[in-house]
Amino acid sequence: MATVDNVRVLTPRSRGRMSDVWRFRDLYRTLVARDLAVKYHSSVLGFVWTLLNPLLMLAVLTAVFTHVIRVPIEHYWAFLLSGYFVWNCAQQCLSSATYVLHQHASLRRSASFPSEILLLSAATAKHFEFAIEIGITLVALVIFHHKGVPGSLLVLPVLFALQFFLVVGLMSPIAVLSVLFRDVQHALPLVILALFYVSPVFYSTDLVPESIRGLYMLNPFAGLLSLYHAVLFEGRFPSAGLLGWVAIFALSSYGVGYAIFRRFKSLCVEVA
Amino acid sequence: MLPLVECRNVGKEFRYPAQATSLREWFIRTVRRRPVRRLAPTFRLSAFDLTVGRGSTVALIGANGSGKSTVLRLIAGIYIPSEGEIRTRGRIAAVVELGMGLHPELTGSENIHLYGTILGMSRSETRARFSEIVDFAGIGDFIHVPLKYYSSGMLSRLAFSIAMATDPDILLLDEALAVGDQAFRERCNERIAERLNGGAAVILVSHDLDVVRRHASEVIWLEAGRIRMRGEANEVVDAYLASVSGAEPVADPDATSSAPGPQREYLAGA
Lengths: 272, 270
Fold this sequence. Notes:
The complex is a heterodimer. Chain A is mainly alpha-helical. Chain A has one domain (about 75-270). Chain A has helices at about 20-25, 25-40, 50-70, 75-105, 105-110, 115-145, 155-180, 185-195, 215, 220-235, 240-270, and one strand spanning about 5-10. Chain B is of the alpha/beta class. In chain B, the strands form 2 sheets. Chain B has a 6-stranded mixed sheet with strand order 5-6-7-3-8-9, sandwiched between helices. In chain B, strands 2-1-4 form a 3-stranded antiparallel sheet, covered by helices on one side. Chain B has a domain at about 5-90 and about 170-255: P-loop containing nucleotide triphosphate hydrolases (Rossmann fold), CATH 3.40.50. Chains A and B meet through strand 1, helix 2, helix 5 and helix 11 of A and helix 2, strand 4 and helix 3 of B.
């Protein structure tokens, strides 16, 4: 006889236990592996697309901003490289939040598991690709830009973690809202496009007029990208003030986003 | 001994959003002073009580839309109840959704690994049971083919085999979704009987009233989200049949599926 130990009590106030996410860690791993596998399942070049796609964009952006519109930054390719993949990863995560719950609607109607795993695994798969991209960036920067290994790279894991918390925190309310209102699917690409221009992806924060710098830095991606620029491009340790601000923003967005998600996730199962 | 499933005064309310109100529609209705219809029909399951002990089978019967699947999904933990309390002990496997959310682009074997972990098996456990699942489903070499090329019978056989491989303590089964062939159904019935002897419990939604009579220790007849009658199988089934045939000559599909036939098992046709 199977040992029966997992007692579950469901009441109207049930939100699932935090520990459930840990209990389903094998599911999380399987989903991450699947996301990576499915993406290029029947394409000939497969995983190469992960790199080819952003590299092509990088080439175009570098060409445009060094030869047509001249952005006054030395070693522009290195500058672009240290921020572009961050933006690319964040942007893909945010858009995936609009469809991840729809995509798994049938799964969620047939088995009980914490839906936050769907968000976490989608974000993790994207960050896995990001880690490879940043690895290649590192090699390129160390060999051709710094011609040495700057000590500031030690901060990189911290930035990586902050980015993950920030992105997942923003994904949670987007995921819930896009189940309840399809409008989000139409609105988000616009928001992302606007964010691209008001974030220091193809220009640096220094080029933003001093008078509106304070307002500008309210955009969490401005802070995050500035950190990456300092660490990767300039090879210096970022200021504690900036690091603190991004950390506070990332962790609180994670906290708030997760709370919203837990509050509404059961409703999403019924609607989607 | 403690029961495996206890539902106390469980209620569940669904409000279906009326056709999504667009801003334009809202504007037109406001101008014409016709208020926006906020909520469309509501489905409510109410005052549902149930206790299922080890080794017993409970069947839910009733017309389409009476709340049978809702009950299964509540017990499975897929829906959160609006009132009351549901207590379950042990591992639950539910066959309540066609195809069970298996992924069409992935191969059979990839789906086994994915779905095994969704039902709460560990990765190593899933690997250990892999060949058993494939054998039980009887899909042979198709295991390396994406699911979108499967026949619907193969699909449901695979889904069911994964669910059974978790050795569930509580098996929630919607009979209408089991569309395997004769041989497969016989294998399933054997397996279900084994689990029951081992102390598991089965909650069955079936339109095959012969199956219900044969196996259910208790039958609950649901009507529009309420328990119309409950009790010993023959008694409830007879009352249900009488009400169905007395009401309408057209009858609902539930009644016709109970046509007398050869010996039936959990999944009709065995």
